[in-house]
Design brief:
The protein has about 110 residues and is mostly beta strands. About 0% of the residues lie in helices and about 50% in strands. It has no helices and 11 strands.
């Protein structure tokens, strides 16, 4: 059983930056895909960014050019660098890893507000 623990969320002003981290209890190298999802109040959970084992990335249109996903297999950690944050980026950000099974973290709250 793999545990995923997110950190790095918080309150930030519009235009600011945050870096989220997702630490895995085991090797993330075996994940076929790692990703970040966002759950905003009253909205469905949506994919923000994902990365395959080979390094192919995919981003939601709303975050392209502002967010960057990265993985450090040596540290068993996945990152989400978020720049030029907007109020609509507010939500709980959850880390996801897929092998055959799917694993989720508990989430970290990101609030973008002045």
């Amino acid at each position: 059983q793999v545990q995923l623990v997110e950190s790095g969320g918080g309150l930030v002003q519009p235009g600011g930056s945050l870096r989220l981290s997702c630490a895995a209890s085991g090797s993330i190298a075996r994940f076929n895909t790692v990703g970040w999802y966002r759950q905003a109040p009253g909205r469905q959970r949506e994919l923000v960014a994902s990365m395959t084992r080979s390094g192919t990335t995919n981003y939601a249109d709303s975050v392209k050019g502002r967010f960057t996903i990265a993985r450090d297999n040596a540290k068993n950690t996945v990152y989400l660098q978020m720049n030029s944050l907007k109020a609509e980026d507010t939500g709980v950000y959850l880390c996801n890893g897929r092998i055959i099974a799917e694993y989720w973290g508990q989430g970290t709250q990101v609030t973008v507000s002045s």
